[in-house]
C-alpha cells in the first residue's frame, strides 16, 4: 500500500495517545505534504528533545536542565509547595499563572489495586523537602478522584503538625452551569458556600 | 512552564490534524516518558520519510520511489484505472484489497467556489494515460459528495466513447442498519435493487 519507511512512521504515530491508525495515516499524509514547513522541523524538534529532556532532580518537572527553571528561580516564593500528581498538572497550574511557590510532582497516586505504595511515588522525597527547604505550607492539588483524594489523605497524615496543609477548593467551575454539574459538585459547592 | 525545546515540539505537534494544544502536550509528555521506545524511533522515522517520500510521477500516489510500487508492479491488471481524489482514498481502496488494476490520484475535486479547475487537478494527465497505457475501463471512485460527483461527471464527459466508465455502487454499507441511514442512501439502495 505504501513503502516501508512510510508504514513505519504511520505505525509509530498510531502509538501516540489520542491517535489511532486512521488519524495516524491522515497525520503522516499531512506531514509529507508539508515537508519543509512541518515534517523536517518536527523531526528536528523530536531529536532535540530526545537528547535534552530530563526530569528535575528536585521536583520531578520535565525540562532540559537537571534542576528545572521553577526550582532554580529566585523569584519563586520560598516555603510554599504545591503537590501535584503529574507533570501535566504542574503545567496546568502554571498556565493559570497564580501560584508563585514551587512544585512537587508525585508521579501518580497511591493505588492498592495496582499495588502502588508511598515508596513508588516521590512521597519520601516530599517529606525530605519539607525540612530541607523550610516549607511552611503544602497545597495538595491532587485530582478530585478517589485515588487522588486517598493520596491526599495519606500525605496529610504524614505531614500533620509539621506544615500548614491546604487543598484546592471544590465548587462550581468558572463559567459552569448548574444544570450540567453533577450532584457531588453541587453539594460540595453548597456546603462550602461563602458570604457575599 | 517548560523549556524552549519542549515548547517548540508541543507547538509543532499541535499543528497535526486531529491534535490541539492539549493533546499535543499529552503526546509530548508521553513521548518524553517513552524516549527510547517511541521518541527516538519516531524522530528517526520522520527524518527518513522527509528525505525519501515522493509523489509517484505516474499516478500521484505517495511512496519512496519515482514510480510507485503499484504502477511498477507487473502483477497489476493493465487497462484498468481507478480514479480517486486523494492518496488516502487510494490507500483505503488498497486496504479493501479487491482492485487489481492501477490508480490515478486527482489531488482534489473541481470546485467553482475555490476556483479549482481541471488544469489544477491531474485531469490532463489522466487523459494522457488513457492513450499511453491503453486503458479500457476507468472506475470513478470519487467521494459521494457534491464536489466529488461534479468532478466525476466532468471526467465522464471528457472520456465518453473512449473507455468503459463505471463508478462505485451506492447502497447500504455492509453491517449498516436502515434505521441509521440517511434518506438519500436508502433511496439510492432501493433504486439500484438487485434480484436475489
UniProtKB/TrEMBL annotation, chains A, B:
<dbReference type="Pfam" id="PF21175">
    <property type="entry name" value="RecR_C"/>
</dbReference>
<dbReference type="InterPro" id="IPR015967">
    <property type="entry name" value="Rcmb_RecR_Znf"/>
</dbReference>
<dbReference type="GO" id="GO:0006310">
    <property type="term" value="P:DNA recombination"/>
</dbReference>
<keyword id="KW-0233">DNA recombination</keyword>
<feature type="domain" description="Toprim">
    <location>
        <begin position="79"/>
        <end position="173"/>
    </location>
</feature>
<comment type="similarity">
    <text>Belongs to the RecR family.</text>
</comment>
<dbReference type="InterPro" id="IPR000093">
    <property type="entry name" value="DNA_Rcmb_RecR"/>
</dbReference>
<keyword id="KW-0479">Metal-binding</keyword>
<dbReference type="InterPro" id="IPR034137">
    <property type="entry name" value="TOPRIM_RecR"/>
</dbReference>
<dbReference type="Pfam" id="PF13662">
    <property type="entry name" value="Toprim_4"/>
</dbReference>
<comment type="function">
    <text>May play a role in DNA repair. It seems to be involved in an RecBC-independent recombinational process of DNA repair. It may act with RecF and RecO.</text>
</comment>
<protein>
    <recommendedName>
        <fullName>Recombination protein RecR</fullName>
    </recommendedName>
</protein>
<feature type="zinc finger region" description="C4-type">
    <location>
        <begin position="56"/>
        <end position="71"/>
    </location>
</feature>
<dbReference type="GO" id="GO:0006281">
    <property type="term" value="P:DNA repair"/>
</dbReference>
<dbReference type="GO" id="GO:0003677">
    <property type="term" value="F:DNA binding"/>
</dbReference>
<keyword id="KW-0234">DNA repair</keyword>
<keyword id="KW-0227">DNA damage</keyword>
<keyword id="KW-0863">Zinc-finger</keyword>
<dbReference type="Pfam" id="PF21176">
    <property type="entry name" value="RecR_HhH"/>
</dbReference>
<dbReference type="Pfam" id="PF02132">
    <property type="entry name" value="RecR_ZnF"/>
</dbReference>
<dbReference type="InterPro" id="IPR023627">
    <property type="entry name" value="Rcmb_RecR"/>
</dbReference>
<dbReference type="InterPro" id="IPR006171">
    <property type="entry name" value="TOPRIM_dom"/>
</dbReference>
<dbReference type="GO" id="GO:0008270">
    <property type="term" value="F:zinc ion binding"/>
</dbReference>
<keyword id="KW-0862">Zinc</keyword>
Amino acid at each position: 500500500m505504501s513503502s516501508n519507511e512510510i508504514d513505519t512512521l504511520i505505525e509509530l504515530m498510531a502509538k501516540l495517545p489520542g491517535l489511532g491508525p486512521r488519524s495516524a495515516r491522515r497525520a503522516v499524509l499531512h506531514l509529507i505534504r508539508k515537508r519543509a514547513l512541518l515534517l523536517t522541523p518536527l523531526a528536528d524538534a523530536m531529536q532535540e528533545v530526545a537528547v535534552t529532556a530530563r526530569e528535575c532532580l528536585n521536583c520531578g518537572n520535565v525540562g532540559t536542565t537537571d534542576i528545572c527553571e521553577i526550582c532554580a528561580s529566585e523569584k519563586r516564593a520560598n516555603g510554599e509547595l504545591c503537590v501535584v500528581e503529574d507533570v501535566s498538572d504542574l503545567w496546568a497550574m502554571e498556565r493559570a499563572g497564580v501560584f508563585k511557590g514551587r512544585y512537587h510532582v508525585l508521579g501518580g497516586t497511591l493505588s492498592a489495586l495496582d499495588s502502588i505504595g508511598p515508596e513508588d511515588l516521590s512521597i519520601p522525597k516530599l517529606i525530605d523537602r519539607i525540612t530541607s527547604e523550610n516549607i511552611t505550607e503544602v497545597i495538595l492539588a491532587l485530582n478530585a478522584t478517589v485515588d487522588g483524594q486517598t493520596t491526599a489523605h495519606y500525605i496529610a497524615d504524614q505531614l500533620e503538625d509539621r506544615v500548614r496543609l491546604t487543598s484546592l477548593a471544590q465548587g462550581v467551575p468558572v463559567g459552569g452551569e448548574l444544570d450540567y454539574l453533577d450532584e457531588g459538585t453541587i453539594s460540595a459547592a453548597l456546603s462550602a458556600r461563602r458570604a457575599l
